[in-house]
Design a protein that fits this description.
Blueprint: H1 6-37, E1 51-54, E2 57-65, H2 71-90, H3 98-105, E3 111-117, E4 122-133, E5 136-146, H4 155-169, E6 174-180, H5 186-191, E7 195-196, E8 211-217
Parallel strand pairs: 5-6
Antiparallel strand pairs: 1-2, 2-3, 3-4, 4-5, 6-8, 7-8
Helix pairs in contact: 2-3
Bound molecules: coenzyme A.
């Protein structure tokens, strides 16, 4: 028991104050995320970015919430993800599950950026979400998948630029994604200036992680204040996103 000293009371007060500020930050972040999720078309302010015409590709881009996406597009998004990623998941501790990937892709919170050719062929997509991650408002890129026939023509880079525009216009503090270390395409994200995020897990003697978390900051806003949690990371490619 004992009596509290003046110093320990002050410490308790400081802690309570800190906790209060943290809660306020999180609730502010949740408000910003909720606003973004109310949008109908996040691409509307950027008409120039609705078309990609380069290296023999002529594509139209649009953004929709998963719930509003046509069934054939949903099916295609799953099939393409499976085709591009299954083997990579199976080669690491994640493993592949059709059910888990479908559940993740079809979540009510999922948004889609889709690229389509003029002939109507589906070329690539990103599954992203506006979310609070470690106390910070972020655009989390869960998936960026291009049909193998259109890779390495600049479309992936363009689509990431579109996600950044959408994120920063809507006051997200960073764009975050998870890449598998065994995926050669993680070099793509480094090439377009994504850097190791502070939430990325660090290997030690007991555990090594098959993935890393990369991010790009919104330069217009102050650096995010992170709230530590034992987060598992989301994924541009994995099941690690369940908090
Ligand atoms: C990864 C992916 C999205 C990249 O999109 P992309 O349109 O093919 O890439 P870009 O043409 O925009 O590449 C931009 C730059 O990134 C780098 N890059 C892209 N692919 C690369 C690769 N496989 N290896 C090394 N660097 C690569 C290059 O520097 C490239 O510039 P350059 O072509 O002028 O040299 C696409 O290839 C893809 O869908 N891959 C399969 C799925 C996947 O692994 N997704 C990522 C994890 S979710």
């Amino acid at each position: 028991m004992g009596r509290k000293t003046a110093a320990s009371t002050a410490k308790g007060k400081e802690k309570r104050q800190q906790r209060k500020e943290e809660q306020q930050r999180i609730s502010q972040a949740m408000t910003v995320v909720a606003e973004a999720n109310k949008l109908d078309d996040p691409l509307e302010p950027f008409p120039v970015f609705k078309r990609f015409c380069k290296n023999g590709l002529d594509a139209t881009l649009f953004v929709k919430k998963c719930m509003k996406l046509e069934e054939n597009i949903r099916q295609w998004a799953f099939n393409l993800t499976k085709r591009n990623m299954q083997l990579k998941y199976e080669q690491c501790s994640w493993g592949w599950s059709d059910e888990k990937k479908l559940e993740e892709l079809m979540d009510d919170a999922a948004w889609y950026l889709v690229a389509k050719s003029n002939e109507g062929a589906l070329l690539g997509f990103s599954h992203f979400r506006f979310d609070v991650d470690e106390g910070t408002e972020v655009l989390y890129c869960y998936e960026l998948q291009l049909d193998p026939s259109v890779q390495r023509k600049g479309l992936g880079k363009f689509m990431m630029q579109v996600l950044e525009l959408i994120a920063f216009k809507n006051n997200m503090r960073k764009v975050v994604l998870t890449v598998l270390k065994n995926n050669q395409y993680s070099r793509f994200f480094k090439a377009i200036n994504y850097e190791l995020d502070e939430s990325s897990p660090v290997d030690d003697e007991d555990e090594s992680y098959p993935y890393e978390i990369l991010s790009k900051f919104n330069k217009r806003l102050a650096p995010p204040v992170t709230v530590k949690s034992n987060s598992n990371g989301h994924c541009c490619s994995g099941h690690g996103h369940h908090h």
